[in-house]
């Protein structure tokens, strides 16, 4: 009798383990699929002669694509989307508009590539340093010092120099609301606010008229209200 009970318990535990493993395996399979799709996109649009990105080709495949983002020294090399009528659409959709918990990096719906003083790109913080999880590395001062360039190709290849890294509570600082400065005073006030919340910062801060670019993701180690933000100024 006892033997039967033990066998039953073992079978029950094995069954529970199998049931618990199914979602995990599905998630891993989805991760591999998403990674492969992004690798294929990167390979298909990289110009062999100079390693630049053919954004025109991407726009032809999906009109929501407005650019391509690269952060040298990290795994960040992704198309960037924008949907003004459905701001967070690409939070859970891939480049081909299929559902994906990975999502695709996207520009704030309120930003204008040509006119905005601040461009904000959102992406998921995926464990293992995937997607914008790579921004976690900027919490290290040495990494910050050695990786100060961001490239964002739109109608041209824009180059930004990282000047600050923030780990910030969105209730304390609503940085995402700053898109356009009313004047120089308003611009400078925002920059000072950014520096107040910095983990690390560079000596040269943005000046009025220089466009900023912010890469924003969840700070998983601190909770739902926290964000890691890596910000650069156009050079």
Automatic annotation (TrEMBL):
Question: Superkingdom of the source?
Answer: Bacteria
Q: What range does the record give for the signal peptide?
A: none
- For the keyword Cell membrane, the answer is no
Q: Which residues form a coiled coil?
A: none
Q: Name one Pfam family in it.
A: Sortase
Q: Does the record's keyword annotation contain Endoplasmic reticulum?
A: no
Q: Which UniProt keywords apply?
A: Hydrolase
What the entry lists under InterPro entries is as follows: Sortase (IPR005754), Sortase_dom-sf (IPR023365), SrtB (IPR009835)
Provide the protein name: Class B sortase
